[in-house]
Amino acid sequence: MYARLVLFTLGSGMRLTAEKVMGRFPAGMRAAKGFKGVTFLGDDTTGQYGALVLWESKGDAEAHFQVAFPQLQSALEGIAKAPPTATLFEVVELKA
Predict the structure, then answer these.
(1) pTM here?
(2) What does DSSP say about strands 48-55 and 85-90: parallel, antiparallel, or unpaired?
(3) How far apart are CA 55 and CA 3, in angstroms?
(4) Are 6 and 88 in contact (CB under 8 A)?
């Protein structure tokens, strides 16, 4: 399994704007091959927001990224304090 962490900064007090931006993506993610789940994140004090998206395979994560990340960049144009970042991680499941 793989996880993509996407982060972007809008500035403090921009939660509603962040929710509007993030709200554009769940339907497309759910329809994408290999999608496992998403958790949206936010810190209204610092103005940093993002998502942690789980994927069945690295290929599935990369395929969706090629389509969705440019859309996110476009959605954040003119409102983000800096370009969004995205990092792909392999999920490490520890056995108890």
Answers:
(1) 0.88
(2) unpaired
(3) 6
(4) no
The whole-angstrom separation of Cα 84 and Cα 81 is 9
- Percent residues over pLDDT 70 in the chain: 100
Burial classification of residue 88, based on how many CB atoms lie within 10 Å of its CB (0-12 exposed, 13-18 middle, 19 or more buried): middle
Average pLDDT over residues 44-50: 94
Contacts of 71 (CB under 8 A, 6+ apart): 24, 25
Residue showing tokens 């091959």: 33
Domains located in the chain, CATH noted: 2-90 (3.30.70.100)
Residues 19 and 58 sit within 8 Å (Cβ to Cβ): no
Q: What integer pLDDT is reported at residue 25 of this predicted model?
A: 84
Residue written as tokens 């959605």? Answer: 75
How many other C-beta atoms can be found within 10 angstroms of the C-beta atom of residue 77? 9
Confidence of residue 1 (pLDDT cuts 50, 70, 90): very high
